[in-house]
Every structure is written in C-alpha cells, then in structure tokens.
C-alpha cells in the first residue's frame, strides 16, 4: 500500500518538477530575447571587418604606431576611374562626379589631381635653392663637371620650347631649380589637367578620383550609402553611356564579402534546416519531435548569438557562416532523446535521466573542444568558439529544462530507419581478428600515401578572397596608379630627426635601383622632399663651384649681363642662412600631406615609459611590389631599415598556430584517455580515443590525396572532429548499448548525418577558410561515424 501510495504521489511530484523546469527555461529564453532586441535597437552588433577576425601581432611600439598611421591614412579610401574615348568629355564627367560625391554625406573627402598650389611649393623651396640639388646635379658637381651643367643651361636658354625667363636666370643662371621641381614627379606616369589626374587605359583616357568614406567601409550601412552615392554620381555624368567606371579599394572587397556571407548564411542555413526536418520526419514520423527539434535549434541560435555579443560586443558575419554548422550539432540532443524513446512507454523525465550522464559528458567534450579554439589568440576563432559553445549549452538547457514537460508523447518511429541502423551495425558485431588486421593495414597504407603528399599553406588571404572579376578590375586600377600603395612598407628608425633623414637619403638610391630592376613600381620617401641638414650643407658647398671663382666665366658663357655676377655672388653668400627647415616644411600644405609618414617621439612620461617611444621613425611607402623577398634583401643591409609586412607576419603566425593546434589535439587525446580510464577499462578508453584519432589521420590523408594544403583552419577543424566525434564513442561505451546498440546506432547515425550535412555545406563556401574548415569536419565526422561502432563491438568482447 505504501508502495502504491508512493507511486500515486510520485507522478504529481515529477510533473511539478518538470513544470518548474519549463518555467525556468521560459524565463531564461524571454530574458535572452528581450536583451537581444534591446541591443539591436541600441547599436549595430553585426561586424563585417575582416581585419577584426585576424590574430593580433606582438609588435614593438614604433612598428605598431607605423601600422596605425598607415591604416588611418589608407582607411576607407576608394579609387574610381572614369574611362572614355573623348578626353575633354571624360575630364568634364570626372569633375561632375567629384562634385556629386563631395555633396554626398557618405564621403568626407574627394580629390583627384594635386591639391597643392605650385606657387606655394615654389615659395617653400626657392629660398633654399642653394641647399638643394637633384641626384644627377650632385653627381656632376662631385666630379667637377660644371661644363655639363652649363651646356644643359645653354640648351634650355636657346631652345624654342625653353621655360627660362630673365627673372629666373638672374636668380638661377644654370637653371638648377626647375630640374629640382621636375624631380618631384619622377616615376609617375600620370598627367594632370584641370585638376584631374589622367592616365591611359587600353587606349582610352582614364580620369582618376579618390574618395574617402566618412564611415568605415566595413559597416553595412556605410557600404550601402557609399555605393549608392557612387552609382548615382556615375549615372548622372554618364548620360550618353560613353563612359566606363573602374573601382578599387577596401569598400568593394568588403561589400562583396558581406553579400557573399549573407548569401551563404541564407543558403547553408536553409539547406541545413531542410536536412534536419527531413531526418526528423523520416526517422520519427511525428510532428512533435520536429517541433521540439525546432525549439532546440531556435534556443541554440539565440543563446549562441547572445553569448557572443555579451563577450565580444559584436557578432562577425563570418561567425554566422561558421555558426550555421551549429544546426547540425545542436540537433544531436533531440536525436539521442527520441532514439531512446522509440517504442517505449515511459515518461520523458525517465528517458532523459537514462541518457543525461552521457549527454552531459558529450557536452563537456564538445564545449572543451570549442574552449580550446577560444584560447587561441585568433579573434575569429574565438568568436566561432563562443558562438558554437554557447549554442550547445543553450540546446542542452532546452533538453534538460523543457523536454520533461513538453516531450512526453510516445514515439513509434520508422521501422525502415531502425532496420537501417541495425543493418549498419550488424557487420561490426560480426567483425573478427582478421578484419581488424586488414582494416589496420588499409588505414596504414592510405594514411602513409596521403600524408606523404600533404603540404602546408598559411597565407592570410585564405581567410577571404575577392572574385576574379574584382581582382582583375583592381589590378587595372593599380597599374594606372603605378602600383598604388601596398600593405608592405619600410620603417626607418633613428635617434634624431637629422639621423632619420640621413638614413632615408641612404635608402633612396637603393629603392631607385629596385625600380629599375622592376622589383617595385614606385615609392614615397620623405627625404625626397626634405633633405637632411648634412645633405643641404653639402649641396651648398658643391654649388660653390658655380657661385665661386667660376661665376664670371659662367655669366659670360651664357651671354648674361656682367653685372649679375656680383648680385648672384651676394645672394649665394646670404643663402647660407636659408636652408630648408623641417619646422617650416611641415607647416606647408606639402609638408602636411607627408606628415603622416613621420613618427615623432612621444612626450616623455615617467609614469608609463613605453619602449621605443623616444625613437624617431619614418614610413616609406612602396607601390606595385613585384618581388618582396628581393626588396627585403636589397634594404636589409641598411642600418635602421626594416620591412614591415603585416600580411606575411600574420601568415607566419597562422603557421605557428597551426602547429600549436595539432599539438593541442594530441594533448586533448591524451587527457581524454585519462578521463575515460576513470570510468572504463584502459583498453576501452584507448579504443574510445583511437576513433577520433584515426578519423583525424584519415582526414589528413584524404586531404593530401585531394591536393588540398594543410592550413590553420584544417587543424582547428580536426580539434572539433575530436570534440564532436568522441561523443559517438561515449554513447557506444554506455552499458545500455550492449542491449540497445541499434538505438545508439540510430542516434549516432542521425547525428553524424546532420553534422556532416552542416559542415559539408560549409565546404561549398566561396571563402577558402570556411571551405577548408567545413571540408575537414565533414571528412572527420564521416570517418568517425564509420569507426565508432567498433567501440560497441570492442565493449561486447570485453564483457
């Protein structure tokens, strides 16, 4: 009677606990939704900046300042090129388009030709003319070849196209200054008319416009505003459809990446959902499991997004692409729950209590695998880890809190699916020693063949790659701009401004020779515009050959008035007091435009001394680099000169992370063996760890046979193969699996199918990094599915 009474009161108590759990789950879900809606209203939480996903380099203070300065200088810059047959019409259209863009709130600055007034440049340099020489003038004077300069002046004086005037000759008889001014434009193939930069593109006139966006090009709103402004302006000036528009810059790469990511999130997410729906309906033939599966997935995505935003404040669009794979993983809880309930007349709470220990351990291993990703100093993978780990916790909480109250209906299940699971398991139950030896031999041969062909590739550009059309268009624009400005640059450092300028001057001939050798197309060196004090003093001394004892001869040779000799001599003597000073230079428009290339020492702060803060530094921009190693070799012998290659440095860092991740995988396998050995025999624990280890080995081997290079994203995927795949071993190692092996096989088969589908779809991504990640996980989970039933066989033989 007491037993009967206990049974009568047990069910209401159980229902009460299930109801309380459901209320708690609803409160948590409501709080998450309210927080999410509030956050979306207050700010934009979607991040599209690919740079935000990259590892942070450990740089010295001066290099970090140089990178920040260059990124600020080039940030949000778009290059627009109007091409047309009619030169005048193209220039007119370019001026009209500049006016339209300047009036748009999407852009903060629009320019084309030089904004510097030639008269201002003249006023800056002419008073210091006795301290300034071109490289060729300096070489001639160092060799004492004044006669060559006299002959050049005679040609300029008597040429029909000469530019000399009596006023200029009275100040500069050998016309050295005009040659100096012309030298500032060296290496540029562009002309300028009516304030518009002009080039030639396929025989057509090309008018070049530079537009700086007001907001970050990685903001979806800014992308839309800037693109609409560009398209609208072009449509207004291209009424007769006689013009074409070429575009280059981060805006168009960011826009393409955003559109591609959105399309992939939609496609991959939709196909994953469709696959899950199909699996649930075919397996359980009931709408209730589909409803609970949908509830699980919804709560997983909500918790994943919330978890990521809480930690990082932003949710990157590429994280969402990676995160679509969460659909295939989070649904595993529903599959295991309903596989256990099929053809059983028991409460949902009892079913849950039977599988909860294994599911909890499975959650722990998966979350630990993602946690390992989170500890890598790679912001992109940290976000993916937080997203997927948070999503799995959300799915687990839904199972624990909501299923006992909502998932109590009896499930008949599909006999065809059950028979399929039994058929899949049957060969493993009959496996013998010979088959094990043969299987090991096959794995060894295939593994050795594939691993021998495996190569590594750690280029950062595998994270995102523009379409062929976009890259070809950008290449045409860069060619017009003499290579433009590359991400790599030279950093020159010294203890003083004077020493810095002298080192820049020593660098100048090396870069000039590199251009002649076609190692690069152009460069921008501050010393070309601001010579050092020592150089100016030397140039003044060399010009004594002109304004000293030979001055009378030069005046007579050129047929000038003899009275000029005394006047020129006096001006030369007075000119010793008028060198070009750095302070005066940087107050001019030209100096202000070049000031970002100079890194002055920071003010001394005794409380927070910063390493390298008292160094002087200068950035030398490089354009159209054709052979970066050769450029680096050419400058490496110069003191204080280093090549800063952020792309190369991050790529090298990714290579180090790849190796570290593979060692981390080995450590995870060792730790897992120790944990499993606490509950199971050592032989069974070793077998449980061997399944994901062999799956990883076979995945790498197949990648080698397919010719796919090994990257950091392959290694990270293998870490998740362990975290997800070891779950299958855990379920087959349960004591209940001896009698209900077909149920475990069904749950594992459904889980592996959904997971492989999710990651297999990622392999279709146009983004190489996502493709590598998805392909490796799909292969790894597939091999784990094939190997995990061996645990069932092994356990039966042990018992």
From TrEMBL:
Keywords: Cell membrane, Membrane, Transmembrane, Transmembrane helix. This is MMPL family transporter. The chain crosses the membrane at residues 20-37, 265-284, 290-312, 317-335, 355-373, 385-403, 435-454, 660-678, 685-706, 712-732, 744-764, 770-791. InterPro entries: MMPL_dom, Mycobact_MmpL, SSD. It is a multi-pass membrane protein. The keyword Transmembrane helix applies. The keyword Transmembrane helix applies. It is found in: Cell membrane. The lineage of its organism: Bacteria, Pseudomonadati, Pseudomonadota, Gammaproteobacteria, Alteromonadales. Coiled coil: none annotated. It comes from Shewanella litorisediminis. Residues 271-409 form the SSD domain.
